[in-house]
Predict the 3D structure of the following.
Amino acid sequence: MGMKMRRVPIAKVIGTIIAAGILIFGALVYKLLFGGIPEVHNSSRQYGNWENFAGYSGFKIFPRDISKESIREYYYRSQDTIFSPEAQVFLEAVFEKDAFEQEVERLSHICMSDGKETNLVLEDNRHFPADAYICEYNWNHCYEYALVFPEALKINYIFLQNIDAADAAFEDSLLPEGYGEESEENPYCLYAFGTGKNVIWYE
C-alpha cells in the first residue's frame, strides 16, 4: 500500500516564510542600530586586544608594554552603532618607582605628526582630579587621558566615547570637571589635523 503525501496548507507555508523574513529583518535592523553584541574584556590577559575596536582613538595614552603584575584593574567595552560607536577603556596600574617615573616621562612626550604639523599631549591639573595627560578632550564626545597619582605610584588610563557618566566602569570622581555637559568650546584631539581638524590619523 503506497504512502499518502500530506499536503501542507499554502497559507501555513507563506506564514512561515513571512515570520522568518521578519526575524531576519529585525536582526539586521538591531545590528544596524545597536551594533549587535558589544565586545567586552575584563581580564588583564586581554589587555591590548583592540583589533575590533570601533571607537575614535589611537590608544596613544595607553602603555603598549606593561607587565600583567602592574595591572590592578582593566575593563574594555566597544560597540558599533548606525549613529556613532560607543566605547570605554579603563586601566588602573601600579608601578615600581623607576617604572612609574619612566611611564610618566613617556606620557609627557606623547605627540603625533602628519608631516606638516605636530600635535602634543596636553597637561591639565585644573579640570581633572589629578595631574592629567590628555590626548582627547571634549572632541566628538571622546575623552582619552591618564591620571597620575605619584604618592601611590598609580596611573589611571581612560578612554570614553558616547558614554554617560552613570555608565562608566569606574568611580565618577575620575571624570573631568563638567563631563557630560559638553560644549563646542576647547575640544582637542591629538589625532586630528588639517583645516577644521577633520583629517584623522591613527597609528
Observations:
- The radius of gyration is 23 Å.
